[in-house]
Write a structure and sequence with these properties.
Elements lengths: L1 H25 L8 H12 L4 H19 L2 H20 L9 H21 L7 H11 L5 H18 L2 H21 L5 E8 L2 H11 L5 E6 L6 E10 H14 L4 E6 L11
Antiparallel strand pairs: 1-3, 1-4, 2-3
Helix pairs in contact: 1-4, 1-5, 2-3, 2-7, 3-4, 3-6, 5-8, 7-8, 9-10
Length: about 270
Amino acid sequence: MLNNVYRLLIILVASIIVGFAFNVFLLPHEVFTGGVTGFAMILGLITPLNAGIWIVLLNIPILILGWTKVGKTFIGNSLFSVLVTAVSMQYIPVVKVTEDALLSSVFGGIIAGVGIGLIVRFYGSTGGFDVIGLLLIKKRDMPLGGIIFALNSIVVVVSGFIFSWELALYTLASIYITGLVIDRIHTRHIKLNLMVVTSKGEELRTELLSKLFRGITVIEGRGAYSKEQREVLYTVISRYELAVVRPLIKSIDPNAFVSVSQTMEVMGNFRRE
């Protein structure tokens, strides 16, 4: 219960940070972020509706699609983030802290990246292509970098045609900086080796198999000092899934020994068929 409250509190603060970055740094200079949120920001400038409202409207069908496919906890956290961001953008005034569009692009990208990175780290998203990306990952372990780049490129091109190509380049810079900051906080495409030594192997194995689309190797082990029998569970997960695995293991076996390390390459069946 406390873990859930703590997670929602972090997502709440992070979502307000994202709304602040949009209204104070990016939108005043007609500089945007990537993905669905970028389209919402463009629509917010060319229509009477606030960008925050557009963020909700564009994300509703995507979140509904992901509700049964991705997981209710993740989608619930994402919906919460989208709503908090939308409300914060309604009340935070759109003001310029500097007349320099480049400075605003840089600092707006950094601040937005911090907020989005925290949201993703605590098992949520800002909606949009994050959810679509997870749906694709569940079907096939495919690199999404090219698809994400293509979607962001559309935002840049639309920005260039509607506003100016100079501002479009600022948008591209902001998107790039935001991505770098998110990677520093939480990189979802990195693969991790997960090894768990536990006395509750059956219960933990069942829960992990129900939450992850990964195979698990079970090894019978024995403590060198204690001589007690243990099960060693080994699997490879994406870093995105670490946010699910960490509290799950802690809730079932708080005394489990857990080792997490980054893997260089994965060959064979990474996804459980």
